[in-house]
Amino acid sequence: MKTPRFFQRSELTSALWAFKSEFKSVGLFSMVANLLMLVPTLYMLQVYDRVLVSGSELTLLVISLITLFLLVMMAFSEWSRSRVLVRAGVRFDQQLSTRVFNASFESHLGEAQDRPTRAFSDLIQIRQFLTGNGIFAFFDAPWFPIYIAVTFFLHPLLGVVAMVFAVIQGALAWFGHRQTVAPSEAAAKAGTDVGIYLQSKLRNAEVIESMGMIDNLRHRWSVWQQAFLDRGRDANRVNSRIVAISKFVRYTQQSLSLGAAALLVIDGQISPGAMIASNFLINRALAPIDQMVSTWRQSATALAAFLRLEKMLAENPERDANLTRVAPTGEVILRDVVADAPGRATPILKGVSFEVAAGTVVAILGPSGSGKSTLARVMMGIWPDMTGEVLLDGLPIQGWDRLELGPHLGYLPQDIELFEGTIAENICRFREVDSERVIEAARCAGLHDMILRFPKGYDTPMGEAGSLLSGGQRQRIGLARAVYGDPAVIVLDEPNANLDDAGEAALVKTVQDLKAKGKTVFLITHRPGAVAVADRLLVLHDGRIVADGPRDAVLARLRPQQPPRSDASPPLGAVQPA
């Protein structure tokens, strides 16, 4: 029978529920620890009401030894539940870390408001909450009625006093929740914004330093930093106020409960031992509530982190690991694709449709801002805000497992990002290095001889080579990475933007080799040399296809009949629709 959707657990809740046996163990240890916390009360009652009256040293020795043994058992229970929770927290992190890692990358592709970079800090906050004092308060809270009942057993008035202060502290906990959640979330968000802003500027330190922009950017950073400090101050002010009120209530409770018990002793209704014991019982009964108040900010932060992480995992479901498909041949079909972006009044791509047979080389032309790079991301299946269909060999590209599909795709974006590792590792996409295939990809991109000139060759770390590589060389390494492993579909976005004549000749040869192997190549370019190897031209303007067909036929349509001068002809990428 299928579980109703209302009762279905989220992925994160299910992950926590998998540790129910550990939570049961913690609950059992908490029961033992809380029951044994009655031992000091009973010991005081025996000392005041039995030992002091009888004057028996043997009785004192026996009850002291029994008390010591029971206190050792209580300490063991406290230690055991902490150990169980710490182990559960580590396993919880290990169980979800890979899932969160993958989901954060997918979330980054469609990130608009939420910050996927917070995913791992959210996971850490949840794990720390599971092993901190806040969770212990949750397990200790159910024993509050037992302590209150024992207090009522000593005298009803003491039980009423305990109940009154329990209500006050409970109301204080609720008030603290209402008052601290919003400031804490605002402070956390402001801190994340400051970190992201600073990291983005550090990545461009050379540009900032060379053009004297650091002082201007520092003023902007100071605004963000001040906002973070203000949010943090507001959160700390509210939290400090709640903690101060909580301390006042706690100390007042200790004094008044002792005064009420002393009054009952004066009236002869309870013994002095019961007076001391009742004060301890009331303090112990209210301890979980007091602990909740003191850890409320941590609890609120953990809850917010849980909700954010739960939302991210729900929006980026895990791919079916058992789903396997036949390797694609490279047929690409787009049907009525509309690609949008946050903050835009109109879509970037507006109903783009075309079919490309496997083994075709397609050159995509168009002026800047026409949607060429967005189209490249759409064909790779990494543009989030999209409607329509993108089919690879007749199957939706979103339905593929990305780990399975990745080796069959090659992508060279405009902004080349090389990662920490060796040149060989970057080329082979950080899989196990296959020397023959790495060298083949490097030769295909025309950079084999260049790599051999480095002291360590293919084993040169990018940290060392990064400062020695020109823009064109970095682009060639990105090209080698894109063609590594003979992928079926290769999308090259401005692959010759930083290449010299020799580099562009190597690019043309690379495309010709891929074409000879039957690979489907999409070439976004403005240069005629690269267009010459294309079978088909596709021209974009304002997000729409304005020309599509065989290369020579499209060029004939776009080329002016009598251009005034050869040097005045517009570049291919800047053609306007007829």
Q: Beta-strand percentage?
A: 5-15%
CATH architecture label of the largest domain: 3-Layer(aba) Sandwich
Largest sheet: 6 strands, mixed
Number of contiguous helices: 22
DSSP E strands, number: 10
Shape category: elongated
CATH class of the largest domain: Alpha Beta
Outline the structure in words.
The chain starts with 10 loop residues before the first helix and ends in a 20-residue tail after the last helix. It is an alpha/beta fold. It contains 22 helices and ten strands. A hairpin with a 2-residue loop joins strand 4 (386-392) and strand 5 (395-396). It has helices spanning 11-17, 20-36, 39-54, 57-109, 119-130, 133-140, 144-154, 156-202, 205-210, 214-266, 272-294, 296-315, 372-380, 402-405, 423-427, 435-444, 448-452, 462-465, 471-483, 501-516, 528-531, 551-558; strands spanning 332-339, 349-356, 361-365, 386-392, 395-396, 409-412, 489-493, 520-524, 536-541, 544-550. It has three domains: 9-132 and 305-318; 143-294, ABC transporter type 1, transmembrane domain (ABC transporter transmembrane region fold); 332-574, 3-Layer(aba) Sandwich (Rossmann fold). Helices cover 61% and strands 10% of the residues. The strands form two sheets. The chain has a six-stranded mixed beta sheet, sandwiched between helices. The radius of gyration is 35 Å and the shape is elongated.
Topology:
Elements: H1 11-17, H2 20-36, H3 39-54, H4 57-109, H5 119-130, H6 133-140, H7 144-154, H8 156-202, H9 205-210, H10 214-266, H11 272-294, H12 296-315, E1 332-339, E2 349-356, E3 361-365, H13 372-380, E4 386-392, E5 395-396, H14 402-405, E6 409-412, H15 423-427, H16 435-444, H17 448-452, H18 462-465, H19 471-483, E7 489-493, H20 501-516, E8 520-524, H21 528-531, E9 536-541, E10 544-550, H22 551-558
Parallel strand pairs: 3-8, 3-9, 6-7, 7-8
Antiparallel strand pairs: 1-2, 1-4, 4-5, 9-10
Helix pairs in contact: 2-4, 3-4, 3-11, 4-5, 4-12, 5-12, 6-11, 7-8, 7-11, 8-10, 8-11, 8-12, 10-11, 16-19
